[in-house]
Design brief:
The structure holds two protein chains of two kinds. Chain A is built from twelve helices and 19 strands. Chain A has helices spanning 4-19, 46-55, 101-113, 146-149, 200-208, 243-250, 253-260, 302-316, 329-338, 354-366, 377-382, 384-391, and strands spanning 21-22, 26-31, 60-63, 66-69, 72-79, 82-87, 125-131, 134-139, 168-170, 176-179, 192-197, 214-216, 222-234, 265-267, 291-298, 320-327, 343-349, 397-409, 432-433. The longest helix of chain B is centred in the first third of the chain and has 66 residues, at 3-68. The chains are: A alpha+beta, B alpha+beta. At the A-B interface, helix 7, helix 8 and strand 16 of A face loops of B.
């Protein structure tokens, strides 16, 4: 009997060891939409948001109400307008170089200069100073949401740059990625990652037959928040002043989300999720003679193609002859930055906080101009939603819908852990148990 | 132009004439034939097109019947009445349309609202008046309708062949309107069946086309409605190519035939004309005096016969000419002998009579002998002189010297002759401008003029008369008129005045004028005799003038 506790302890230890996840294997992921872009600033879909952290590590990760460092070890507010980031020592890039504070500072500076709606995430950033292993962000105004905004995947180090660092690094085959054993947050469970593209039926069959472990974009229950927002941006000189009212009068966002978008989707009535819809507009008289306008969208985004066609049908009745203009994602972004688009559809992955999401929307609407309406901390903190409702009619932006991620895993595979927005952390998905 | 060249050209012209005469009619007939064939082909194509359309319409009606009765549509019709509209209903049309090879399909509610669309899913809940109108048309036929599509150019309407089928579930009715777009694929399919270019027009614009038809083309309309017109273009390029090919063949034939005709004509003409040329050369040789010219036999039978005849003729001509010449020589000798005998015999008779008279008187020792001797010897002497003169004239006629032509001043020459040889009883006159010269032998011309002056004086007789010489120029000739007032030439003798031995004088030999003409001919001139209307004779001499006169 004296040996019983020891035996029980040994048995418990053995049982615990048997249930512990086992590292190794190849994680096979099938995506129904476009593959994630090489540059995080081109992030538009929920799949992009789920996959980009596999190749381009962000500074941090949201877990619940707090941030967990990935490339940085810790964050701390020195003052309401100064945020200190301590870079995790020993982090190496894909090319083997050490990731130091200077490289992190350079990454943030680049993100602020690159033409991208996500530049709004850093709207409050004034200067960046580097001291040994610490990067200090000096702000123009108090912006507590900046700490969580730094975890946005769009601010990750681009995988194509020499400073890239992520859980997986590019392997020999085009679709094969290998585990980065030196990843600062710990190596991924799988030894390799196979990322392929397929239509929804093929992806579903692959998961059903256990030829793939994960399928993204297949019919499945919603996973995570609906943070992929789609906006119709217009150039005032290309349309009539009544254009906003015309679109609002004919566009049923409920129908749009229900019948024309694949996967989990909902109408986006306000400028950002959670903001109420503006007052209903009366339909203006149809234009006569009709006016021809071009509507640009991401050529790889089937949801946006469907929205464009739906808008084509709806606006035709109002006298707008809409000519669809499918563009590569990079060109769409570049022409958005140049301001040469008449009408355009944009998808952005919003940060979960309303002020940060509003900053992205304002950046998208103002195309790099200074988002002065956000300069007031009072507005940001206390009345962000109301302010967004007030701001919406002033921006050349029409919110259309939000979408989330649908994910299906192979039978017998544990559900992947998620971050604070509900996105799966596929690098933390074990393929089997010891 | 030589005969040979002419014949070759005639052959070429005959050949060209044949082609030129035949080619237009042949080409015209060929064109009519090809045109008829093309018309037949296009009409057959049109009929085939109508048959294809009818079959496609029948297939469409059958497909729509099957679709309307299918379980899938029944389930969609059942779900379509739910509120809100289930997603599977809104997305049903593409799945119903594609397996049935339809390119247009809409599910409409009783008010014409689109509940699902296969060709434009984004038209959901929009009214589709054009397709809903088809529901009021005969269900046993397919109809043309305008269908709205989304294109890179925006929303457009395109024609389609559609028909409508009701779908009832309970007391509520839906409509299925489906069909086939008259697009490029449809036009291409139809074109491949008909072998023509298919063009679809809608609202005055070309909206689809298929197939190819090399220009030029002829167009036929397969169907026409307010929504669409389908035209078939049949190529006429084959006809034009055939026509051009035949035309080129005619041209080639013409050119080849012409060249062959020229070559053949040249060869044939050479064969035909060679005997003629040989005959010509032989004739020229005969004219040159070679009476025995012969032509080598050859050519066709007729030509050989001609040559043989010619050769016989030349052989006969030579023999005949030799015989004639011999005969003429004999006749001439006979004439000369007769004339000479006659001329010699005339003086011999008085001589013989005088000698017999003198011999008789001498035998009888008649005292009149001396007186008679005197007269008789004088008479015999005169006759002997006459004989001598006759012999001189004959000798002179036979041995006329070749004239030495020199420029001769005619006026002075004629004046001296008149003064020297015209007797006192004859009045003479000379009409001549100074300086008229002629190419003449002074001695021979003087002999001619003296002879003519003496003849004129003798013709006027003892009574005398008037003798006028007129010298003038006519072109390159110097002319001398010698006019007398004698009796002139007897009309019957005038044509023969210059023949030897023709004379009106009892004592004449008839050689004077003949000798004078011969001298003038030796001068390359002429001598003519005429009677003047006012009486008397005129003798006209023509001589050449020296160059530069």
């Amino acid at each position: 009997m004296r040996r019983a506790p020891l035996a029980l302890a040994l048995l418990a230890s053995a049982a615990l060891a048997a249930s512990r996840p086992r590292a190794g294997g190849t994680l096979s992921v099938v995506v129904t939409g476009p593959l994630p872009p090489a540059d995080p600033v081109e992030l538009t879909t929920a799949s992009d948001a789920a996959l980009l952290p596999l190749f381009a590590a962000p500074l941090c990760r949201l877990e619940g109400e707090r941030t967990v460092g990935v490339l940085v070890r810790s964050t701390s507010w020195v003052s309401p307008t100064a945020l200190r980031l301590e870079v995790r020592p020993g982090s190496r890039t894909a090319s083997g170089e050490l990731l130091n504070a200077s490289k992190v500072a350079a990454m943030l500076t680049r993100a602020r200069r690159t033409a991208s709606p996500y530049r709004g995430l850093l709207w409050a950033l004034d200067t960046v100073t580097v001291t040994e292993n610490v990067v200090q962000l000096n702000l123009k105004a108090s912006a507590p949401e900046l700490e969580s905004a730094l975890c946005h995947p769009a601010l990750a180090v681009p995988a194509a740059t020499p400073t890239a660092v992520g859980p997986f690094v590019r392997g020999s085959a085009p679709h094969l990625w290998l585990a980065n054993l030196g990843f600062p947050a710990g190596r991924p469970w799988a030894d390799a990652l196979s990322l392929t593209q397929a239509d929804a039926r093929t992806a579903e069959r692959a998961v059903g037959q256990r030829r793939a472990q994960v399928a993204l974009g297949v019919p499945a229950p919603q996973l995570g928040a609906l943070l992929r927002a789609t906006y119709l941006r217009f150039t005032p000189r290309a349309v009539e002043p009544s254009f906003r009212a015309a679109v609002e009068s004919v566009l049923d966002r409920e129908e749009l989300a229900r019948f024309f978008l694949k996967g989990p989707a909902a109408p986006l009535v306000g400028l950002v999720p959670g903001v109420p819809a503006p007052p209903a507009s009366t339909a203006p008289a149809p234009l006569h003679p009709p006016r021809t306008v071009t509507l640009a969208f991401d050529q790889a985004d089937e949801d946006h193609r469907a929205i464009a066609t739906r808008l084509q049908v709806k606006l035709d009745a109002l006298g707008y002859r809409v000519k669809p203009l499918p563009l590569p994602r990079s060109e769409l972004l570049q022409r958005w930055s140049d301001g040469t688009l008449e009408l355009s559809l944009h998808g952005v992955w919003l940060p979960p906080s309303t002020p940060a999401a509003l900053a992205v929307a304002v950046e998208l609407a103002t195309r790099g101009s200074t988002p002065t309406p956000l300069a007031s901390p009072a507005v940001r903190d206390e009345h962000a939603g109301a302010f967004a409702a007030t701001l919406a009619p002033q921006l050349d932006l029409l919110p259309l819908a939000v979408q989330g991620l649908s994910l299906k895993t192979a039978a017998g595979l544990a559900a992947p852990p998620r971050d604070a927005t509900g996105l799966p952390r596929l690098d933390d998905l074990p393929l089997g148990n010891d | 132009m030589r005969l040979r060249t002419s014949l070759a050209l005639v052959f070429a012209a005959l050949c060209a004439l044949q082609v030129v005469a035949v080619a237009p009619f042949a080409l015209r007939s060929l064109g009519q034939l090809l045109e008829t064939q093309h018309r037949t082909r296009t009409q057959e194509g049109l009929a085939a097109g109508q048959a294809v359309l009818a079959r496609l319409d029948a297939d469409l009606l059958h497909t729509m019947d099957e679709l309307a009765a299918s379980d899938e549509v029944e389930r969609v019709a059942k779900d379509a009445h739910e509120v809100p509209l289930p997603t599977q209903v809104a997305q049903a049309a593409p799945g119903l349309m594609t397996p049935r090879a339809l390119t247009v399909l809409s599910l409409l509610d009783a008010q014409g609202r689109t509940l699902s669309s296969g060709h434009l899913p984004e038209r959901l809940f929009e009214k589709d008046e054009a397709l809903f109108a088809v529901t009021a048309l005969a269900p046993t036929e397919a109809h043309d309708a305008l269908v709205t599509l989304a294109t890179p150019e925006g929303l457009v309407t395109r024609p389609a062949r559609v028909c409508a089928r009701p779908v009832d579930f309970g007391e509520r009715r839906l409509w299925l309107v489906g069909g086939t777009l008259l697009d490029d694929a449809w036009a291409t399919r139809l074109a491949s069946l008909l072998g023509a270019r298919v063009e679809v027009l809608s609202q005055g614009q070309r909206v689809a086309q298929g197939g190819r038809a090399a220009p030029p083309t002829s167009r036929l309309t397969l169907t026409e409605s307010p929504a669409a017109a389908v035209h078939l273009d049949f190529s006429r390029a084959g006809i034009d190519a055939t026509f051009s090919e035949v035309g080129r063949a005619f041209g080639l034939l013409f050119a080849t035939g012409l060249l062959l005709a020229i070559a053949f004509g040249a060869v044939l003409a050479r064969r035909l004309t060679r005997p003629v040329e040989s005959l010509t050369h032989a004739a020229q040789a005969i004219a040159g005096g070679a009476l025995d010219a012969q032509v080598a036999e050859g050519g066709s039978r007729e030509v050989r016969t001609l040559i043989q005849t010619f050769n016989r003729m030349t052989a006969d001509l030579k023999a005949t000419t030799e015989a004639l010449l011999a005969s003429e020589r004999i006749a001439a000798w006979q004439e000369v002998a007769r004339r000479l005998a006659h001329e010699v015999k005339n003086p011999l008779t008085p001589i013989r009579l005088s000698l017999e008279t003198l011999r008789a008187l001498a035998e009888r020792k008649d005292e009149r002998f001396a007186a008679t001797f005197e007269r008789a010897s004088a008479a015999m002497l005169e006759e002997v002189q006459r004989l001598s003169r006759i012999v001189d004239e004959f000798s002179h006629f036979a041995r006329l010297p070749r004239p030495r032509l020199e420029p001769l001043e005619l006026v002075a020459f004629c004046r001296s002759l008149l003064e020297l040889h015209a007797p006192q009883r004859v009045r003479t006159a000379l009409h001549a401008p100074e300086g008229v010269r002629a190419l003449a032998d002074k001695d021979l011309l003087g002999q001619v003029l003296v002879n003519l002056i003496k003849n004129a004086v003798e013709a006027m007789g003892e009574a005398g008369g008037s003798l006028e010489l007129t010298v003038l120029t006519e072109g390159d000739a110097a002319v001398i008129h010698l006019d007398d007032t004698g009796p002139g030439f007897p009309p019957e003798l005038l044509p023969r005045a210059f023949e030897p031995y023709v004379t009106t004088k009892p004592q004449g030999t008839g050689l004077g004028l003949a000798l004078a003409r011969r001298i003038l001919e030796e001068h390359q001139g002429s001598l003519e005799a005429t009677n003047r209307p006012s009486g008397g004779a005129r003798l006209t001499l023509r001589l050449g003038r020296p160059s530069g006169s």
